[in-house]
Amino acid sequence: xxxxxxxxxxxxxxxxxxxxxxxxxxxxxxxxxxxxxxxxxxxxxxxxxxxxxxxxxxxxxxxxxxxxxxxxxxxxxxxxxxxxxxxxxxxxxxxxxxxxxxxxxxxxxxxxxxxxxxxxxxxxxxxxxxxxxxxxxxxxxxxxxxxxxxxxxxxxxxxxxxxxxxxxxxxxxxxxxxxxxxxxxxxxxxxxxxxxxxxxxxxxxxxxxxxxxxxxxxxxxxxxxxxxxxxxxxxxxxxxxxxxxxxxxxxxxxxxxxxxxxxxxxxxxxxxxxxxxxxxxxxxxxxxxxxxxxxxxxxxxxxxxxxxxxxxxxxxxxxxxxxxxxxxxxxxxxxxxxxxxxxxxxxxxxx
Length: 351
What we know:
Blueprint: H1 3-18, H2 28-44, H3 50-63, H4 66-75, E1 87-91, H5 101-109, E2 113-117, H6 123-136, E3 144-146, E4 156-160, H7 163-172, E5 178-181, E6 185-189, H8 196-207, E7 217-223, H9 228-235, H10 245-261, E8 265-267, E9 272-275, E10 285-291, H11 294-303, E11 308-312, E12 322-323, H12 342-348
Parallel strand pairs: 1-2, 1-4, 2-3, 4-5, 6-7, 6-11, 7-10, 9-10, 11-12
Antiparallel strand pairs: 8-9
Helix pairs in contact: 1-2, 1-3, 1-4, 1-6, 2-6, 8-9
């Protein structure tokens, strides 16, 4: 259902990112308007630089390729389920641009009505894309609502937030069918045999969206005796990350805290590598931990699977689904956050 809507939207997103407005199936005007939002978004959220907004647009456009959307629709038999009067509320996070997009896609393609409560940090882009969806497919105009003030009634909820807000969501929305997501982290497992290109790609996994996404690598596991110069040399091309004042302030603050506390850190001038057993590092910092045995490490990671969004590695990590360096920030249409099948959840509302 609404496959064509999202295929066209993918073309609009790519055109907006590329600044070339041909090939939008008659929706060139919408692509131009969306392109104008790219620079404006930074005024609403200092983390949303044009580079990363465009990156997200291109990633979503890839997700919405015709083959991907058609196969997704066939896999879940979405053209056969019919429209549903159930209202599904999506409470969105605002850590990266259009972070709630996949939930929007799933709700509408599953035939449900959509109520979106966007984050104030991402209201502009979310609203703009929803308006384009309505223009592409006018019948969706009365099936999409944005909650800005007064609470809109709903029948089920998908909510994403911090660990603290997730506890609140669990309590407050317990009586509704729900998917509640909390903090997750992504890690990389290195063997020490990676080439320069592998590190360059890994740098994208670390620095995209300034490390604010749950798919951003916040920790690396390295073999005992690892040469950290390999890592720092491979990511040095990302040094311009310091041009963002918000990132620079976080890096400087965390460096001062670690130096005063005597923490074990390595520093290349724009990223702190801190030896730590935790998974989620602050902005400007990547945690690192050495391992002796690859199989033992795999077992440890499997025990933390409920805390992990992605494991980046060129090697197979037993029992875990891994992605190659450079791919953590580019989920496919079949990649569900936290491994929870959103479409099956939505289809169950019809029964």
